[in-house]
Design goal:
Blueprint: H1 3-8, H2 11-16, H3 22-34, H4 36-55, H5 62-77, H6 99-157, E1 162-169, E2 177-183, E3 189-192, E4 203-211, E5 214-221, E6 224-225, E7 228-229, E8 233-235, E9 243-250, E10 261-266
Antiparallel strand pairs: 1-2, 1-10, 2-3, 3-8, 4-5, 4-9, 6-7, 9-10
């Protein structure tokens, strides 16, 4: 073969990778001595492989580096073992691994680690995006609920059967109270507690109807949901009512008698 055929055959790449047999190695050495082009090609291939390994290498700890090079030097000095006189009277090929490929293997491990770090980074960004999406969806649901509440409040306020009762504070110096909408055709009762201040810690507002001179509990009043004012809340239904009242009680189950009445409104 001429120099160009040798270069195109691919055997030079195998030689530089340490994958040629003893006979093939001898041939390549002979060709390199015979053809300057072949020698130049071998040098170029080796430089390319070494350049790749060095471009992707990382600087290890000094002690690790010493151990690695000691191991490499030990392997380079080892005498290849060739098995002779086998049962079929043939020798088996024993391949040595070129130091270049050892560098390439190390570079591959570095690339694998880098890929794992990149995947972990993208996974964290994916998780963060999911959390932001969940937060946005929650906020959207709250906005929808708020809009529905306002729509219900507007519908109740405009209902022709609604009798509006204003429960005013019994303390004339306190600016508080609530609007009550009593549907006489259905006996449904709604309260707009937006003008009630937030109940103190451990306390709650409770709604009362005065029926035949006696107070009847109509339920616990909710003034806020997720930090937003409540504009309409359906309470217990009442048929015949003389007045409505709002009391401030200790938090817990609804009471049978009011402890501290805060506001009263007459339905008559």
């Amino acid at each position: 073969m001429n120099a160009q055929e040798i270069i195109s055959s691919g055997i030079l790449e195998l030689y530089c990778s340490g994958l040629t047999s003893a006979a093939e190695t001898a041939e390549v050495v002979q060709w390199a001595q015979q053809y300057p082009e072949v020698a130049a090609e071998i040098e170029a291939i080796q430089s390319s492989l070494e350049g790749y390994a060095q471009a992707h290498a990382i600087v290890p700890d000094a002690s690790v580096k010493e151990k690695i090079f000691a191991s490499i030097n030990s392997n380079e000095k080892a005498t290849p073992v060739v098995k002779l006189n086998t049962a079929d009277n043939r020798s088996e090929k024993v391949y040595a691994i070129s130091p270049v490929w050892k560098y390439a293997a190390a570079a591959s491990i570095v690339l694998l680690i880098g890929s794992s770090i990149l995947n972990y980074t993208f996974y964290n960004k994916y998780q963060s995006a999911n959390k932001e999406l969940a937060s946005t969806q929650t906020e959207l649901q709250q906005q929808i609920a708020s809009a529905q509440s306002m729509d219900t409040a507007m519908r109740i306020m405009g209902d022709m059967h609604a009798t509006q009762v204003v429960a005013k504070s019994i303390d004339t110096t306190a600016d508080m109270g609530a609007k009550i909408y009593w549907m006489k055709n259905t006996s449904d009762v709604y309260i707009d507690p937006a003008n009630l201040p937030k109940a103190p810690e451990g306390k709650q507002y409770e709604f009362w109807a005065i029926v035949e001179g006696a107070p009847v509990n109509g339920g616990v009043i909710t003034t806020e949901i997720n930090g937003k004012k409540v504009h309409v809340q359906k309470m217990k239904s009442f048929g015949k009512v003389q007045a409505f009242a709002i009391s401030l009680e200790n938090a817990g189950p609804a009471k049978t008698k009011p402890d501290k009445v805060m506001a009263v409104g007459s339905s008559i």
